[in-house]
Amino acid sequence: GQNIDQPTEMTATEGAIVQINCTYQTSGFNGLFWYQQHAGEAPTFLSYNVLDGLEEKGRFSSFLSRSKGYSYLLLKELQMKDSASYLCAVVDSNYQLIWGAGTKLIIKP
Amino acid sequence: GAVVSQHPSWVICKSGTSVKIECRSLDFQATTMFWYRQFPKQSLMLMATSNEGSKATYEQGVEKDKFLINHASLTLSTLTVTSAHPEDSSFYICSARGGGDTGELFFGEGSRLTVL
Predict the structure, then answer these.
(1) pLDDT tens profile A33-91
(2) Which chain A residue has its CA at the smallest distance from B37's CA?
(3) A31/B102 CB distance under 8 A
(4) pLDDT at A102 exceeding the cut of 70
(5) How far is C-alpha B97 from the chain's CA centre?
(6) How many Å separate Cα B73 from the centre of its chain?
(7) Which residue of A has its CA nearest to B91?
(8) I need a surface site. Which of A71, B12, B43, B90 has the fewest CB within 10 A?
(9) Which of A1, A3, A5, A12 is nearest to A72 (CA)?
(10) HSE of A20 in the Cβ direction (CA atoms, 13 Å)?
């Protein structure tokens, strides 16, 4: 079966760095998305990786290793507004999105 | 970037009535749109894939006669919750696949449905 695993909840301190991991087992791979979702709102796009390596976008970076079925989202200089759920989603061989359950990130002052 | 507009943002209705939610892609054509449901503190659950000009593809366990999906044009898909019941109260979100290299999924703002 297809499976996306990410931690249910993480806590970090304002100003610090946090890494949210995502491992996947899917039928084929056509890319991996990271989305941010605040409570009661729709998800917003953060990143898309289809090749191995690290992609940096300001305070957010995303890494992919296809051979390991592994990705992480790195958030630097954490701000209180970064408190949200972070969703990992993989595009499988049929171009369907397989979603993880999301990681709730709690930022403490 | 591309924008997907969803309307209404929230709606309260009586049990037994029907509610229609619209999803529009404002600056691009979307041959495929997706409808999700999200209960509090739970992940997005794909309900159906809406294909322009053809019948929607429903996920297992989703009643197609209860959740009517119409994708009449390349920029509009509608979800109608028929004979709504309190257990249908949820956050309904649509999305549309953009073009380009990433084929990014753009989400609507979501519609909060409360059935009394």
Answers:
(1) 999 999 888 888 899 898 999 999 899 999 999 999 999 999 999 999 999 999 999 98
(2) A42
(3) yes
(4) yes
(5) 13
(6) 15
(7) A40
(8) B12
(9) A5
(10) 34
